UniProtKB/TrEMBL annotation, chain A:
GO terms for molecular function: structural constituent of ribosome. InterPro entries: Ribosomal_uL3, Ribosomal_uL3_bac/org-type, Ribosomal_uL3_CS, Transl_B-barrel_sf. The keyword Ion transport does not apply. It comes from the Eukaryota. NCBIfam families: L3_bact. One of its GO terms (biological process) is translation. It comes from Sinocyclocheilus anshuiensis. Belongs to the universal ribosomal protein uL3 family. Residues 225-248 are annotated as: Disordered. Its main location: mitochondrion. It is found in: Mitochondrion. This is Large ribosomal subunit protein uL3m. The gene is LOC107688359.
TrEMBL record, chain B:
GO terms for molecular function: structural constituent of ribosome. InterPro entries: Ribosomal_bL19 (IPR001857), Ribosomal_bL19_sf (IPR038657), Translation_prot_SH3-like_sf (IPR008991). This is Large ribosomal subunit protein bL19m. The keyword Metal-binding does not apply. Pfam families: Ribosomal_L19. Its main location: mitochondrion. GO terms for cellular component: mitochondrial large ribosomal subunit. It comes from the Eukaryota. Keywords: Mitochondrion, Ribonucleoprotein, Ribosomal protein, Transit peptide. It comes from Sinocyclocheilus anshuiensis. The lineage of its organism: Eukaryota, Metazoa, Chordata, Craniata, Vertebrata.
Length: 345, 297
């Protein structure tokens, strides 16, 4: 990742740094006094700026892929490396969530023949990356930082990669924090799977919404606009009045106006999990989820008070793939129609 | 497993005999020893034993035995299996395809095209006998994956009725092809503006026999339209309709005027190119491999 910075130098040491730099002389050709010159430089903190040869670059890529494969396989069996104590689920305890990739949507039918739409979220290489204790985080709850999809380390700064090196995990594209109760903390480096959620429970999904750019008031806030004809002069999609008249004599803060829409984090609450595919780690979640296809989303147990009953007795603190309990490839909700089963009436 | 197809001319002469032979052959199917020899000898026997003593050369039956089966049978991949050209993870399509194949193991979804006449039975809680049967011509097949749909059109008591059915709906009980044929177009929405006789089909229509080898018959029928205005301007080149008798309803000037909306660069637009040949091969193999029990006759 490079950042443009400005460096002030005196004219005396004017060695230019190559093609990236532009020099703006501030009209001081005539005077001999030391003039401060502004040079645009690139502050670089990633690997590629070491200008490696091709052989070295390909070797690095190979070595890094192998290293990360090794790290993933090491972490597959959490029992082997001194795991933290596991506690039982209690009322009021909060457990971790997952980071998933939004794949797409498809229809699903219930046993009574009703049709619902589900979004498919795939959990790709989800690992717990760091544990923050109550004191470190906010004084009230402990926190766990969870990372999503694996990415290459070559385009990320050193500081970002350090966190992953400490956990012994390949670098991830998205990091999110989950507030967790003390009995649900997990050792950094544990992998998280889709079986963490059971069919029939409710989740909240947070993601960055699709960016729509600068949008008018009708699309952004749902204003009605004005009629298309009957004498309207050049006014069909405008906001109309901006508020009351002379008494406040101002426009209130927060007035809904045109502006940039989308590309902000938004949460959809209370979405039911219909099905969990343990082979490909896919969650089938009711309805739609913010974000475009292949975007990373944060999934956690729902906090809606009416859905707390459905979230009782989940795999706590998470689902550990220890090998002793073999899950079937697909876990379905009771209401859902499974295609291999005989047809319902 | 093998099938014997006798040419139509012989069928009238020895139908009953051939039917017995077919019965025998079906039993003999389970003994795959000398399939070719068995069938030819039986048919020669059938042809010679009845009718006048005039020498009729033995018919050469078209035998499709196991080794040749894949090549001569028509390869049909239902269009909803082909994924659209999007930036979606192929894992999503493969998982959906598994579900579709599972559903096809339970319900037989036959091969059909736009222009074929289908009879569909769905479970309906509001009907006495629980099954709701509808017969109609398929005018459109749309949707990919599990949400694939097809629209059936028929004229019932003078009222045109179109019903959109989902192929993979669990309430679907039976899909029967009464007449398998293709039309000159992929989309027959213009039947709404055509004379009602082209969309009316009898509910008690009997299934017409169709071949499972060779090409699907393309009906060259050109439809007569009701007077304009139509629901869409079907004469415009963007619809590219070949199945309407424009000469009866439009003048030459109107046809030329419609050509103003022609987009002659469309066939050369590289961004719209989507070559599905390799994808189709791969998906066909996957579907054939997993759904053997449904495909066997």
């Amino acid at each position: 990742m490079t950042a443009l910075t400005c460096r002030f130098i005196k004219l005396a040491d004017g060695l230019l740094r190559g093609a990236q730099v532009t020099v703006c002389r501030v009209g001081a050709a005539l005077q001999r006094a030391p003039v401060i010159q502004c040079i645009r430089t690139h502050r670089t903190n990633t690997w590629w700026d070491e200008h490696l040869t091709e052989d070295n670059a390909s070797f690095l890529k190979k070595v890094v892929t192998e290293e990360y494969k090794q790290q993933t396989t090491d972490k597959l069996n959490p029992l082997k490396d001194e795991p933290w104590p596991r506690h039982e689920w209690a009322e009021g305890s909060r457990r971790v969530g997952l980071v998933a990739v939004k794949l797409g949507m498809m229809p699903v039918w219930t046993k009574s023949g009703e049709r619902h739409v589900v979004t498919m979220l795939q959990v790709q290489d989800c690992h717990v990356v760091k544990h923050l204790s109550k004191e470190e985080y906010n004084g009230r709850t402990a926190a766990l930082i969870v990372g999503g999809k694996n990415i290459s380390p070559f385009h990320r700064p050193e500081g970002y990669l350090e966190v992953f090196r400490n956990a012994g995990v390949p670098p991830k594209q998205k990091l999110t924090t989950f507030c967790v109760s003390d009995n649900a903390i997990i050792k950094p480096g544990t992998p998280l799977y889709a079986a963490h959620f059971c069919p029939g429970q409710y989740v909240d999904v947070t993601a960055k919404t699709i960016g729509k750019g600068f949008q008018g008031v009708m699309k952004r806030w749902g204003f009605k606009g004005q009629p298309a004809s009957h004498g309207q002069t050049k006014t069909h999609r405008r906001p109309g009045s901006l508020g009351p008249g002379g008494d406040p004599a101002k426009v209130f803060k927060g007035k809904k106006m045109p502006g940039r829409m989308g590309n902000i984090y938004d949460t959809n609450h209370g979405l039911k999990v219909w099905r969990v595919n343990t082979k490909y780690n896919i969650l089938y979640i009711n309805g739609s989820v913010p974000g475009h296809r292949n975007c990373l989303v944060k999934v956690r147990d729902s906090i809606l008070p009416t859905r707390l009953e459905n979230n009782k007795n989940p795999p706590f603190p998470t689902f550990f793939a220890d090998g002793d309990k073999e899950l079937p490839e697909d876990l379905f909700d009771e209401d859902m129609f499974q295609f291999g089963q005989p047809m319902p009436e | 497993m093998f099938l014997v197809h006798t040419p139509l001319s012989n069928m009238a002469a020895c139908t009953s005999r051939v039917r017995e032979m077919m019965g025998l052959l079906r039993i003999l199917r389970h003994f795959p020893q000398n399939e070719r020899l068995l069938s030819t000898s039986i048919l020669r026997h059938a042809a010679a034993s009845d009718g006048p003593p005039k020498f009729t050369p033995p018919t050469k039956p078209v035998i499709i035995d196991k080794t040749q089966k894949e090549a001569s049978l028509r390869r049909f991949l239902s269009p909803e299996f082909i994924p659209p050209r999007q930036r979606t993870n192929p894992v999503k399509f493969s998982v959906e395809r598994k579900d579709m194949i599972q559903r096809r193991k339970v319900l037989n979804i036959p091969e059909f095209y736009v222009g074929s006449i289908l009879a569909v039975a769905m479970t309906d809680p509001h009907v006495n006998g629980n099954l709701n049967r509808f017969v109609g011509i398929c005018i459109q097949r749309s949707g990919k994956g599990l949400g694939a749909t097809f629209i059936l059109r028929n004229v019932v008591d003078g009222q045109g009725v179109e019903i959109c059915y989902e192929l993979y709906n669990p309430r679907m009980r039976k899909i029967e092809v009464l007449k398998l044929e293709k039309r000159l177009d992929d989309n027959l929405m213009y039947l709404r503006d055509a004379l009602p006789e082209y969309s009316s089909f009898n509910f008690d229509m009997q299934p017409v026999h169709y071949e499972i080898t060779g090409d699907v018959p393309v009906s060259p029928l050109k439809v007569k339209m009701k007077p304009k205005p139509w629901s869409k301007r079907w004469e415009r080149p963007k619809f590219n309709i070949k199945g309407i008798r424009f000469d009866l309803c439009l003048t030459l000037e109107m046809m030329e005027h419609a050509q103003k909306w022609a987009e002659p660069w469309r066939p050369y637009d590289m961004l719209k190119e989507y070559d599905t040949f390799s994808l189709e091969e791969q998906i066909f193999k996957e579907v054939q491999g997993k759904s053997q029990n449904v495909n066997s006759p």
